[in-house]
């Protein structure tokens, strides 16, 4: 009965419901003191779960007694309730002899005394207090009533990690299933609480506890003193260890930590990711134990010096190993898996030039492998044959560099079912580029630069899902369409993603448009894509509209074929006559023009030598964008000249700018708000104008970012008719299109 604006319950509200096992009245207006009359729960003699959370809307400072008659719930096992600012539970709570789990999901409390939970029964094994947004002060002995607790979940509460570790004092030398302390550290200026430096004193209680699952993710841990993180007395108890989203690196104790990890001989999951910077969109792992069944789910929340470790050995029981988005990680040369049960291996987005060689001794159970964000050049040859691997993720791995050599890197993964090689700037795939993936079912080629669908896909007879979105396709060739239809008939299903391509609706592609109208396969956007229509003077339209007016668009394509041939022949004859006449009458001028042009070409070949493909002009507030611009273009093989990186030290700034622009084939002006304060921008505009007039400079590209066109310096007006303009967008889809447009202009 959630969300029903309930304010009061009559004593007879639940009469006759003696078989009811679960009751939820969350998100109403039921007050703990006035809404629950005596004997209201008495008919519910078999109730085992009650949820009356998120009812106390006001942040009351007064002392509130929990007068609801919970003692009538003789078999209650799980209770979800609000925690008010100054709670007083009462002795009737002690009568809940079967209560095992209590959840405080709406938390107004700011101070918990040692006696705050003194009336709780000692049967409680799980305490969840996960939404205390105001800073919560807890006395050291507050958990004394819960000596039989197995799960302590304080996730997202504003408690601060140092305090959370201190309240574990009553639980010393006990065994626990879960200690979940994710994101309990928030900045509290009034108490001078911010980032965490773990010390031996902080860890003295938790290090004595036998813990199965420990989650310390996202807690602003910036440093570890005296290797206090590796002082656990019972490492063999660990089954899941999660430390992602902090800001400490393992440089000083990495070797000892991996020795400790090996001692965790029963650990099944290890997660050390999103470190040491605060990433914008981290994905945390949830390990939650309920009814003795363990499940793993994902929860999404809004190059320096490398110390090299020769070899590490992972525990044989580990099943899930993730280390992703790491900067300054210790370099590891080799990872040894001995009789391992590892099934999920994720080593991705690591800023390193060393990728470990994976050595398997005995069992080979790896089913999921993610090596995204690392150059495929350094991952080639680092794996044995993984015959059980089903999923391979290689996003943003510069795969185009390996595909250029026609060397397939997938021969180590012959039986994969899912392959994701998106975001790799792939222009084409050689016939032997992907190997023989006879079991491949799902292939993601999105966010690449494919102008046509690679014919090698036809050899993948098991494929049932293909993502070709965000490429440069103008059509699907007939061989690919026939293959897709064949796959659909063979498997009874086939999904194709084609959104955000460069489709053309013309006579040459009418068969593709007609195929879209008759498709049986599953298409994204319901088969309705944007396309350029030369028949309508180059306007953009949707394939759905073109299909609806198919006859109007394409009726003349077939009937006028011979007329076009005749017209072409006649036009060619007339053109030849005109050309011959023109050449004969102007033969001396033409000879002189060829002579002059040939001389200029010879002089240019001797005197002009481009050193850079692109010179980038920018101001201080464009530095971050230029870094990304430079990385993107250099990854595509272009040579870039930037002031902060490429100017010669000790030379005149003006001379260096003039020389660099003269030696560049193209120039990009990044126009940002601070350009009006940059005195060198005007110099570079004038120099670009000079080079353009002297016919040395090929393209002038202007990228405006966070500035309106009215604010662009007037100096651009003199070259505006020679400028290629990009107004840099904010939406991700439009940004991807802008990147492709820029690269096409420069090639």
TrEMBL record:
Q: Report the transmembrane regions from the record.
A: 561-586
Q: Which residues form the TIR domain?
A: 610-746
Highest taxon above the source species: Eukaryota
Localized where? Membrane
Q: One Pfam family for this entry, by name?
A: TIR
What GO cellular component is one of the record's annotations? plasma membrane
> What is this protein's record name?
TIR domain-containing protein
């Amino acid at each position: 009965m959630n969300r029903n604006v309930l304010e009061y319950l009559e004593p007879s509200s639940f009469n006759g419901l003696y078989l009811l096992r679960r009751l939820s009245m969350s998100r109403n207006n039921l007050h703990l003191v006035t809404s629950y009359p005596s004997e209201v729960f008495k008919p519910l003699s078999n109730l085992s779960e009650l949820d009356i959370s998120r009812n106390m809307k006001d942040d009351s400072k007064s002392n509130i007694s929990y007068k609801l008659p919970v003692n009538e719930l003789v078999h209650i096992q799980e209770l979800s309730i609000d925690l008010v600012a100054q709670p007083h539970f009462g002795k009737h709570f002690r009568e809940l002899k079967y209560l095992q789990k209590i959840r405080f999901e709406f938390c107004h409390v700011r101070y918990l005394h040692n006696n705050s939970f003194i009336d709780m029964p000692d049967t409680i094994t799980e305490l969840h207090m996960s939404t205390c947004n105001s800073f919560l002060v807890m006395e050291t002995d507050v958990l004394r009533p819960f000596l039989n607790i197995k799960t302590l979940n304080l996730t997202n509460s504003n408690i601060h990690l140092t305090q959370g570790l201190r309240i574990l004092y009553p639980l010393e030398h006990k065994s626990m299933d879960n200690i979940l302390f994710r994101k309990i550290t928030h900045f509290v200026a009034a108490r001078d609480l911010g980032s965490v430096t773990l010390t031996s004193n902080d860890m003295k209680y938790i290090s004595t506890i036998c813990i199965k699952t420990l989650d310390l993710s996202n807690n602003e841990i910036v440093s570890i003193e005296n290797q206090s993180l590796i002082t656990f007395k019972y490492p063999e108890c660990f089954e899941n260890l999660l430390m992602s989203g902090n800001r400490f690196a393992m440089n000083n104790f990495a070797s000892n930590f991996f020795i400790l990890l090996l001692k965790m001989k029963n650990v099944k999951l290890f997660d050390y990711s999103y470190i040491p910077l605060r990433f914008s969109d981290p994905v945390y792992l949830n390990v939650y134990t309920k009814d003795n069944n363990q499940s793993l789910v994902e929860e999404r929340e809004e190059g320096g010096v490398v110390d090299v470790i020769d070899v590490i050995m992972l525990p044989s029981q580990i099943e899930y190993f993730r280390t992703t988005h790491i900067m300054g990680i210790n370099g590891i040369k080799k990872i040894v898996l001995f009789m391992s049960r590892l099934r999920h291996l994720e080593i991705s987005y690591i800023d390193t030039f060393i990728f470990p060689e994976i050595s398997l001794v005995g069992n080979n159970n790896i089913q999921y492998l993610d090596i995204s964000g690392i150059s495929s050049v350094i991952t080639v040859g680092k794996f044995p044959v993984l015959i059980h691997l089903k999923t391979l993720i290689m996003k943003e791995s510069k795969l185009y560099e390996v595909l250029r050599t026609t060397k397939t890197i997938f021969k180590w993964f012959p039986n994969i079912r899912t392959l994701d090689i998106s975001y790799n700037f792939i222009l084409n795939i050689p016939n032997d580029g992907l190997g023989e993936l006879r079991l491949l079912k799902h292939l993601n080629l999105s966010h690449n630069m494919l102008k046509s669908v690679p014919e090698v896909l036809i050899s993948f007879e098991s494929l049932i899902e293909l993502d070709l979105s965000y490429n440069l396709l103008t059509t699907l060739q007939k061989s690919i369409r026939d293959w897709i239809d064949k796959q659909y008939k063979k498997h009874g299903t086939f999904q194709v993603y084609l959104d955000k391509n460069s489709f053309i609706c013309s006579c040459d592609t009418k068969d593709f448009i007609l195929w879209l109208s008759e498709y049986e396969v599953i298409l994204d956007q319901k088969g309705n894509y944007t396309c350029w229509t030369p028949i309508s003077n180059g306007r953009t339209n949707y394939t759905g509209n073109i299909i609806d007016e198919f006859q109007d668009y394409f009726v003349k394509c077939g009937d006028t074929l011979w007329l076009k041939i005749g017209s072409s022949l006649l036009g060619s004859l007339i053109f030849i006559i005109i050309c011959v006449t023109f050449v004969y009458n102007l033969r001396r001028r033409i000879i002189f023009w060829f002579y002059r042009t040939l001389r200029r070409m010879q002089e240019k070949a001797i005197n002009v030598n481009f050193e850079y493909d692109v010179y980038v002009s920018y101001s201080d507030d464009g530095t971050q964008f230029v870094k990304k611009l430079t990385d993107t273009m250099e990854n595509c093989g272009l040579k870039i000249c930037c002031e902060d990186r490429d100017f010669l030290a000790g030379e005149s700034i003006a001379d260096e700018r003039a020389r660099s622009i003269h030696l560049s084939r193209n120039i990009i002006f990044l126009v940002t708000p601070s350009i009006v304060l940059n005195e060198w921008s005007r110099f570079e505009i004038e120099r670009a104008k000079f080079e353009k007039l002297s016919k040395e400079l090929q393209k002038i590209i202007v990228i405006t970012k966070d500035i309106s066109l009215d604010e662009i310096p007037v100096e651009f007006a003199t070259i505006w008719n020679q400028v290629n303009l990009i107004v840099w967008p904010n939406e991700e889809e439009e940004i991807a299109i802008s990147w492709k447009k820029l690269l096409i202009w420069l090639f």
